[in-house]
Amino acid sequence: MSVPALSRPRPRPDFERPGVGLVGVSTWDVGTSERQRATLAAIERAWLGRPWPEGGPLSYTVHLGDDGRTLLHYSQWPDKEAYDRFVRTFRDERNAEIDAAVPGIERVRLDFYELYRGAGDAARDPGSIVIVEVEFAGPDAKRQREWVDTVLTALASDADNRARSGGISGWFHVGTEGDRVLNYAEWESADAHERALAAPGAGVGSGTPEWDRVHTFPGVQGGGVRRYTPGITLVPGA
After folding, report:
1. Is the model's pLDDT at 201 over the cut of 70?
2. Considering the entire predicted model, what is its pTM?
């Protein structure tokens, strides 16, 4: 039996949702902030106007890039087979409606992850989402997890700084290809994140032995930090 799509009033994924075996993270580039808003509205219409795809995603979240041109897509799936079935059966009609509303969307990339570790305060609503990506020199599943463990040890060493700075949560994902890690971090606001980055000496990521081990971790060859404003989360209805 088909069920409707629902838009959550709190635009965040449930990171502890049971049954999630795969996470898809993709980026769209639409060029301007006006087109960002138009694309977000078109996505919501395309999904709420149809039954939730049978056997499809467990949730679908979209955020607006603070760069004024990109959108982050974060989707939770039971497994890769469920994603492939959605692509074959349901994706094209939704994308066609979105593209008709906002022509010229560039779908930049799509990566798949598994949630590895994380924690946060589910009662606090984030005002900003910070995505930290780290790329490694070649696939190594063990190295991915060791890097995350090293970061979490460093975060625990300055937990007071992080709490004062406005950090709410951090959810670390390891890439299914073995060569990348993504941290989905929630913050009170973009200003709080900026202050944490700029804090001299005693800020988050300061020069402690634990953070030194993060900064000199072998095999890291690239990455980046991108910030987003919360948008929408869509889920299947009851």
Report:
1. no
2. 0.94
